[in-house]
Amino acid sequence: MKLIEWKNLDKSFGPTEVLRDMSGGIEEGEITLLSGVSGSGKSTLLNILGLLETYDKGVVSWWGEENVKPFSRKAEKLLAKRIGYLFQNFALIDHLTVEKNLAIALEMSSDSESEKEQQMLEAVQTVGLPEAILDQFVYQCSGGEQQRIAIARLLLKPCDLILCDEPTGSLDEANRDIVINLLLNSNEEGKTIVIATHDPSLKAIADRVIDIPMLRVD
Q1: Whole-structure pTM value
Q2: Is residue 97 in some structural domain?
Q3: Is the domain of 119 the same as that of 177?
Q4: Fewest CB within a 10 Å sphere: which of 75, 134, 148, 194?
């Protein structure tokens, strides 16, 4: 079953053509790699699939529903309940503590405050971080720690589909391995994973690879 499917997709930024007549889909339960060199449009496609970017032509369906517009009520519902995003820049709030950043993922939860605190503790422990990091400000954390905090936040969010933009791009080997294992564990738990990357080594964990060609202005 395809969670997301796109047909004859075009996208340009001004005179620069990024995606041309692309068709494809994301199969439920798989790890799919959007592969291509920097500037090829893989992050743009990921943002379209994640309802963060519009497209010019074509048809896209999310769970069978076609052409949902970014920032619409339907898009907000999908993002709240079905789609999780691991951003390349982590999208953490530097001047807040780690705990307050994680709490954002639980804003819609009806659980008690003590239950939420326990869930946040378990999330940071799952990604290999100590309990004490919850009280630190994000700006005090290293790049590798921030990536794991972003994953911990993702673990707290209800979703069926995880979209990752260059999840290992700025990490050393040790943190890279941690991130890959966490994504594999999420996939084993039933989540569908889509990774936009120019790292060819990630093809080893993928069930499917979609190559994004580099286009030139005609």
Answers
A1: 0.88
A2: yes
A3: no
A4: 75
